[in-house]
Amino acid sequence: MSSEIQSEVSTLAVRSALPPGCSFGSVHRFSRQNAVPLTSQSGPCPPECQDLIVIWVDFPPQSPEDPFHFSSSRKVIIMILVLFFAFITTWEMSSYSISTSSMRRDFGVPEVDAALGLSLYGWGFAVGPLVLAPITEEYGRYLVMVVSVVSYTILHLMGKNISTILVGRFLLGLTGCIGPTLTPGFIADIYPPEKRGSPMAIFTFILLAGPAIGAMSMGFVEANQDMQWRWVQWIQLIIMGVFTPLMIVGLRETRSLVVLQRQAKRLRKERGLQDGGRYTARAEINRMHLLPALKRSIGRPFCEYNWGVYFIVISGLPYVFSKLHGWNIQITGVAYLAVAVGSFFGFLGNFAQDAVYRRRAAKDGTEARLWASMVAGVLFAIGCFVFGASATPGSSWFGPCAGVVLVLGDLANCYGAFASSAVAGMSFLRILLGSSFAIFTENMFNTLTVRYSLIMMGGIAMLLAPIPFVMFFKGPWIRDHSPYSKRLIAEEQKRLDESEIFSLEPLARNESSGATRESKERRESV
């Protein structure tokens, strides 16, 4: 990079009147063929490349095009749309599970074949983000969400035989995963950190309560001899048919990096290099990589196992109440109300955790967020023990329901500790392993009995319960040795500074240097 080029930047900054939000940057190397920024910027410029001054394209202060500054009504509409799609995709899990009896009868297939549909749906959830994430980075959330909603709607027509149903289940998971996967991204796009708590709590509640509502509502459809599993599919198709046009019209692109890339592309087309540089969005220089996300998923066995137990509960409740207690399909569906109640307690637990955090943040720092997870990890194991110990033919129905309430209520808080991650708990291994549990649930119940199966699960959960305690007491050491943690804080600080929401300068200081309580709260919100 020559000093002449660098000095030209200051000269152009004086002479050129750039569009609002744009500013001159340094020199970057681009390919002449496709104008792609190159990783290597050092050494002589080869003939196939060119060194150009970049003009950074950013939002001007308080720009209505910045998703952070969307109107309140626009934000509410976006949240309703994405949360409803996330609800539908989780609602479908138990809707399918509750209707497998009539499906097995019509097609003459064993239980394991029908249960495979639940696992295939989960496997699609696991694989989908890895396949679709690069598309989201390039084309934005709106396009991926709308295409997924349309595809998800059409795929409900696949149901001629068990083979097409199973293939359709995987494809439904593949397209439906976008709802739960992108919803945290939409929340982060339009709300600053200190305002994300309530939307994330609602999102977590929807993820866990959706299957309960699906089983309760579709249990009555399955019990009707004139409807059963085919009408379960038709009802879902009708709902999605009404919802899809609303999504297409009401949703907006919220990924600011993509919006800025489009603005930069438009400015390059309109103005070329006449302003003395190449209009460039920062995202075009700093590309995202997917491998770290998979590594982070592998490093969270606590959540992988909890989601496995979650799938066992969803697929195992019909077994427990129909075979052990002799309930009909309608009443068995109502038993899923325990899942909804547990999810609601978990939802309330998020607000209790926020109150604890506000009181303890000055003393505990970032680790004040882990109080709920520490309690939930222990109660999660206790819930498994209660469910298992009471799952016998002669026992009261209240015991298993109470166990489910504990399991689901505390899963919400175990999960909530990671709810702001890029995939909000819908990571590859978590769902892949969790949904795989559904395949062997009935065989495990038949071999070990429900009692000892759940007691075994509770024992394993108790072994994993110390993980939040380790994170609480060793949190500073873990963060100091976590490149991802440092990068996440730096990226969020940069994004907020560019949007001029507030300054996060205190985040760069070490906690031991006397950071104030307010700066610690901002750090944790990041």
From TrEMBL:
Compartments where found: Membrane
Primary location recorded for the protein, binned into one broad class: membrane
Region (Disordered) residue spans: 507-526
Pfam family, one: MFS_1
One of the record's GO molecular function terms: transmembrane transporter activity
Transmembrane segments: 76-94, 114-135, 142-159, 165-188, 200-221, 233-251, 305-321, 327-349, 370-391, 452-473
Signal peptide: none
Superkingdom per UniProt: Eukaryota
One cellular component term from this protein's GO annotations in UniProt: plasma membrane
Residues of the Major facilitator superfamily (MFS) profile domain: 78-526
Topological category with respect to the lipid bilayer: Multi-pass membrane protein
Annotated keywords: Membrane, Transmembrane, Transmembrane helix
Stretches with biased composition (Basic and acidic residues): 517-526
InterPro entries linked to this entry: MFS, MFS_dom, MFS_trans_sf
Protein name (database record): Drug transporter
Upper lineage: Eukaryota, Fungi, Dikarya, Basidiomycota, Agaricomycotina
